[in-house]
Amino acid sequence: MSHSCLKCLKLTMCVVNFLCFVCGIAVMGLGIYMMMTKFTSLTPTFAKLNMSNMLLICGIIITCVSFMGFLGALKENRCFLIMFFVLLLILMVVELVAACLLLLYGEHVNKWIEKDLKEGLAAAIKKTRENSTAPLSDWNLIQNGLHCCGVHNATEWGDLVPASCCSTNPCDKQDPKYKPKGCLDALSDLFEDHFVTAGISVIVLCIIEVLGMCFSMTLFCHISRSGLGYKL
Predict the structure, then answer these.
(1) What pTM did the predictor assign?
(2) Could you tell me if 52 and 35 are in contact, meaning their C-beta atoms sit under 8 angstroms apart?
(3) Contact (Cβ atoms closer than 8 angstroms) between residue 22 and residue 101
(4) How much is the pLDDT for 132?
(5) What whole-number distance in Å separates Cα of residue 217 and Cα of residue 221?
(6) What are the percentages of helix, strand and coil residues in the chain, rounded to 5?
(7) What is the DSSP letter of 159?
(8) Is the separation of the CB atoms in 116 and 138 below 8 Å?
(9) How far apart are CA 37 and CA 42, in angstroms?
(10) pLDDT level of residue 222 (50, 70, 90 thresholds)
């Protein structure tokens, strides 16, 4: 391989990994912001997983992987390049396994989401009864954003139907008209509408990861043949 091609390959890896590093920093920033901002839990599972921590962990993973790729390409360091290759391979396998499980067990996932939403709604109602000023930020957000109410309909809120369930703005307190669609159906419709887009995104991401692995291995082999070793 010519010196100019290797230089172009090295520059491409540096630029792409630098952009990924910036994206990782942005994800970490969002996770930290969510940690500082208090939200109620939409579902018990989200409360256990803690979305802010998940974003922070994802941001750390992205920044670490991209930093290894950037530094490995810039310094022509075989150790960083092989670590970059292995981490990308692990991430790609995890993504493919998760996508396959989602396709195979889609019905079970839908039932689990329904059960989790009902438990989250019951917890929100209980919290509101204990403290009438308690905010329902997550439920208000999803009900306003997806134009839905409750898991299946407004009756699940009992006598504590929030204003975000109203189909009119402002809400008519004398004769309120609630949104007919439940949030479970709205989420299912949203997933179906973006299923193709999500599939294409996963495929594109896997292609990028494969290219990253190919580039890193090409540089690794070139450095090994040239006898540059593990220079820093």
Answers:
(1) 0.70
(2) yes
(3) no
(4) 60
(5) 6
(6) 75, 0, 25
(7) T
(8) no
(9) 15
(10) confident
